[in-house]
Write a structure and sequence with these properties.
12% of the residues lie in helices and 24% in strands. By secondary structure, the protein is an alpha/beta fold. The chain has one domain (16-385): Leucine-rich repeat, LRR (right-handed beta-alpha superhelix) (Alpha-Beta Horseshoe). The chain has a twelve-stranded parallel sheet, with no helix packed on it. A ten-stranded parallel sheet has the order 1-3-5-7-9-11-13-15-17-19, with no helix packed on it. It has a five-stranded parallel sheet with strand order 21-23-25-27-29, with no helix packed on it. It is elongated, with a radius of gyration of 36 Å.
């Protein structure tokens, strides 16, 4: 079903047009630009094709334009003329064009949109090239979504001008260079998504200045240590995703400051040292993913006090010691992967350990016991520590016994020799 081509001519008093989540197709009628009182146009989630009509720039009262999730196209400069036209809508606050078929570079004319624009969403298109510096003119933006495109190059100085940003999503592109430290000055920023790009260099300590709820820097080429500042005191952060980088060094013990933390993925880095016992203070934590690192030491007993945990993955490290038995008491724990470590001792049989499909313990050659479905070797009837003490005792007894026998033989031999010497002396004296 298509909209009538004259729809805008017949509704001069129309204030808002909401036709979202339908099956409309065809082009968006250019006549909508004649409905001069329109403040809101919501055509989201349909099958509209063709170009965005430049006539929408005639709507001087337009505040909200949502054309997301359609099949609208922009392949050349002529197709992008609508963006230049929308610059005349001085009250425009929301522009949503996500999940369409917009191609090529973002035009410089994007910087001519209304300074009052607060929400710009170009997510999931086929945009390429560098983000134009002119986007920094949109100083009123508090939501900018450019994810799932083919944008590249370093993030320019434009980002430092968007001081009011509350959410910034540049994920799933080809951005490179460092993560700009200027982002740390965005006092209103609560969500930062930079994952799945080619960012490199260090994590800026200035991010610790923010009241972030979500920080996602995963799947980049970031190096260096995790800044202590990111885990600052009283941080409201719920998601800290740093996996699949080249981060190294210790997990900062300051992680205990993230009392609201729900998810901590640090997988596939080069993190060393021990898992900090202070992690147990993060009582809201539901998922711990620190697999494929270089961790050593024991699994902290404090993890057994984190009652919200539903998943733990510590596989592919160099952890040693025994499995903390309190892990069996975590009632929400449904997935546990401790495979490819150096763990030893008896496997618990309760809680998550009772379900062999929920537990992975492969390549821990010192483990034994557990439920039958784990197919692990049976533990010896005598615990290995007791057996070791018995062996040591026997060895000591044998050693002392051998030494006593040797000493006794030496004494007997010495006494016998003395008697023989005395007899020889007496015989000599009698002869003379």
């Amino acid at each position: 079903m298509e909209l009538p081509s004259t729809i805008g001519n017949t509704l001069p008093r129309l204030y808002a047009l909401g036709l979202n989540n339908n099956m409309f197709q065809g082009q968006i009628p250019a006549s909508l630009g004649n409905a001069s009182n329109l403040r809101e146009i919501i055509l989201e989630s349909n099958n509209f094709t063709g170009q965005v009509p430049s006539s929408l720039g005639n709507l001087s009262f337009l505040q909200y334009l949502n054309l997301g999730q359609n099949k609208l196209e922009a392949n050349d400069s002529k197709n992008w003329e609508f963006l230049d036209a929308l610059g005349k809508c001085s009250g425009l606050q929301v522009l949503t064009l996500y999940d369409n078929q917009l191609h090529g570079a973002i035009p410089n004319s994007i910087g001519k949109l209304s300074p009052s624009l607060q929400y710009l969403d170009l997510y999931k298109n086929n945009l390429s090239g560098m983000v134009p510096e002119s986007i920094g003119n949109l100083g009123g933006l508090n939501n900018l979504f450019l994810s799932q495109n083919n944008l590249n190059g370093p993030i320019g100085s434009w980002v430092g001008k968007l001081k009011k940003l509350g959410r910034l999503n540049l994920a799933d592109n080809n951005f490179s260079g460092p993560v700009p430290s200027s982002i740390g000055s965005f006092t209103q920023l609560t969500e930062l998504y930079l994952q799945s790009n080619r960012f490199e260099g260090l994590i800026p300590p200035s991010l610790g200045n923010l009241q972030l709820l979500v920080l996602n820097l995963s799947y980049n080429n970031l190096q260096g240590t995790i800044p202590n500042e990111v885990f600052r005191t009283m941080s409201p952060m719920t998601n800290c995703v740093l996996s699949n980088n080249n981060l190294e060094g210790l997990i900062p013990p300051e992680v205990s400051n993230l009392r609201q933390l729900i998810e901590l993925p640090l997988s596939s880095n080069r993190v060393t040292g021990e898992i900090p016992d202070s992690l147990g203070h993060c009582q809201e934590l539901q998922e711990i993913k620190i697999d494929q690192n270089l961790l050593t030491g024991n699994i902290p007993m404090s993890l057994g006090n984190m009652n919200s945990l539903s998943m733990i993955n510590l596989s592919h490290n160099n952890l040693s010691g025994v499995i903390p038995t309190p892990l069996a008491d975590l009632q929400f724990l449904t997935r546990l992967d401790l495979s490819y470590n150096n763990l030893k001792g008896e496997i618990p049989i309760n809680g998550v350990f009772a379900n062999a499909t929920a537990v992975s313990l492969n390549s821990n050659w010192g483990l034994c016991g557990g439920v039958n479905d784990l197919h692990m070797p049976a533990c010896s009837a005598v615990p290995w520590r007791i057996k070791w003490k018995v062996y040591l005792t026997i060895l000591l007894i044998m050693t002392f016994g051998f030494m006593s026998c040797a000493m006794s033989s030496y004494v007997i031999l010495l006494v016998t020799c003395e008697e023989e010497i005395k007899k020889s002396i007496l015989n000599v004296a009698f002869f003379w």
